[in-house]
């Protein structure tokens, strides 16, 4: 049966307009993006099939072009559309942070860092550079690879903070394993960077570790 033949309140697009996007399942949201199904499958049926094949919505969103395009109903055009949607989401979150103080919008910070780092297949270390009112000046990925004292150079972090004329910053890195629990190396690195940045009067406000769930704040643990 075509979605057009469904009761109006059960059609994904009409349901979204009536109840809001949060009321829809992953399959219903994906069906709206797909727009049409394939022979013998409605858009919702195809969406359910794709979610099962990929293992979930996150895996589908983070798929590479080759893997994405190999599935029925998908291809380079859909991949380009999806990447555009994801990037618009990241820029929307960035715009929210630029309007408000990072300290007054802790959930906005977490949401932005998840959007930027959770999909990374390898560890990356980045900084949110802030002005005197703790509004975001810039976000930069500074280092790639295993995050420890040997791979993150305080001199480079200080150099970028001065280049942005930052008064404060928030450190962040991801754990590709999905487990966001800070390690002893994370704590030692945070202290090392805090001491280096204090010499140029730049405050380290927090260090977030990004995994599968909510980013973990070292400041909330009392480690900043």
UniProtKB/TrEMBL annotation:
Sorted UniProt keywords: Hydrolase, Metal-binding, Metalloprotease, Protease, Zinc
Domain MPN residues, every copy: 102-224
This protein's record includes keyword Nucleotide-binding: no
InterPro entries, per the entry: MPN (IPR037518), RadC_JAB (IPR025657), RuvA_2-like (IPR010994), UPF0758 (IPR001405), UPF0758_CS (IPR020891), UPF0758_N (IPR046778)
Domain of life, per lineage: Bacteria
One record GO biological process: proteolysis
Keyword check for Zinc: yes
Alphabetized GO MF terms: metal ion binding; metallopeptidase activity
Family label: Belongs to the UPF0758 family.
Name the UniProt record assigns to this protein: DNA repair protein RadC
Originating organism: Pseudomonas linyingensis
Lineage: Bacteria, Pseudomonadati, Pseudomonadota, Gammaproteobacteria, Pseudomonadales
């Amino acid at each position: 049966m075509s979605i057009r033949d469904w009761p109006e309140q059960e059609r994904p697009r009409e349901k979204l307009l009536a109840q809001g996007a949060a009321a829809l399942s992953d399959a219903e949201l994906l069906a709206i993006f797909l727009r049409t199904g394939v022979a013998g499958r409605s858009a919702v049926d195809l969406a359910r099939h794709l979610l099962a094949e990929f293992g979930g919505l996150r895996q589908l969103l983070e798929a590479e072009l080759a893997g994405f395009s190999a599935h029925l109903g998908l291809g380079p055009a859909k991949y380009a559309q999806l990447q555009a949607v994801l990037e618009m989401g990241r820029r929307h979150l960035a715009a929210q942070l630029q309007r408000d103080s990072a300290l007054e919008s802790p959930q906005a910070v977490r949401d932005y860092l998840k959007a930027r780092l959770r999909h990374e297949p390898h560890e990356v270390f980045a900084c949110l550079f802030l002005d005197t009112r703790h509004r975001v000046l810039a976000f930069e990925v500074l280092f790639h690879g295993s995050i420890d004292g040997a791979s993150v150079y305080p001199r480079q972090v200080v150099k970028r903070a001065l280049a942005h004329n930052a008064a404060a910053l928030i450190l962040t890195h991801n754990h590709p394993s999905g487990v966001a629990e800070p390690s002893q190396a994370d704590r030692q690195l945070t202290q090392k960077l805090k001491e280096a940045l204090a010499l140029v009067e730049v405050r380290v406000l927090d260090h977030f570790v990004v995994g599968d769930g909510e980013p973990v704040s070292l400041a909330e643990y009392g480690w900043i």
